[in-house]
Specification:
With 166 residues, the chain is an alpha+beta fold. 28% of the residues lie in helices and 25% in strands. The protein has helices at 21-35, 72-85, 127-136, 149-155; strands spanning 8-16, 38-42, 46-48, 59-68, 100-106, 111-112, 117-118, 162-164. The strands form 2 sheets. Strands 1, 2, 3, 4, 5 and 8 form a 6-stranded antiparallel β-sheet that branches. Strands 6-7 form a two-stranded antiparallel sheet. A hairpin with a 4-residue loop joins β6 (111-112) and β7 (117-118).
């Protein structure tokens, strides 16, 4: 049977604010490449202010563009497995974490299921998402908002600090 989702470009955002943050991001990138697909591009690493729960350490964030033949729900299952293997424990929403991997886009797919919503429903409100994404996909058009990443970043209301570190 043909896979309707063959060779899709998936955009992921990685974040860490506990432990050896840079090493954790590197481990996550390697695991994603081994299990999800070829990493076409990776942004620089950014140090970013916390969002949602402000009383916590600053984050390191990185965006990836990954070519995959996996279905969206399978990508989600794998990234959740990777989070778990790297020590992610979910205590509070938007709280401190060893690793967080969010699926921002799955090609131009629009999906809202019980387990997965793509595009990520709040990506346009978060500077820590848009800055690294802009580095690797400034002209990618949000399939619901019909705006490029650059346009979304320019209009982003989030005042949080975002600084490229590597």
């Amino acid at each position: 049977m043909d896979n309707l989702f063959e060779n899709q470009n998936v955009f992921l955002l990685l974040g860490s604010n506990l432990g050896e943050r840079l090493q954790i991001l590197r481990s996550a990138v390697a695991m994603i490449e081994a299990r999800v697909g070829f990493i076409q591009s990776a942004s620089s690493v950014y140090e970013t202010a916390p969002w949602g729960v402000l009383d916590q350490p600053v984050f390191l964030n990185q965006a990836l563009s990954v070519s995959t033949e996996l279905m969206p729900e399978e990508v989600l299952r794998i990234i959740l497995d990777i989070e778990h293997e790297l020590g992610r424990v979910r205590y509070e929403r938007w709280g401190a974490r060893v690793i967080d991997i969010d699926m921002l886009y799955y090609g131009n797919l629009v999906l809202d299921s019980a387990r997965l919503t793509v595009p990520h429903p709040r990506l346009h409100e978060r500077r820590f998402v848009l800055a690294p994404l802009h580095e690797i996909a400034p002209d990618f058009i949000h399939p619901l908002l019909s705006k490029t990443t650059k346009q979304l970043l320019d209009a982003c209301p989030d005042p949080g600090d975002v600084e490229k570190i590597s």
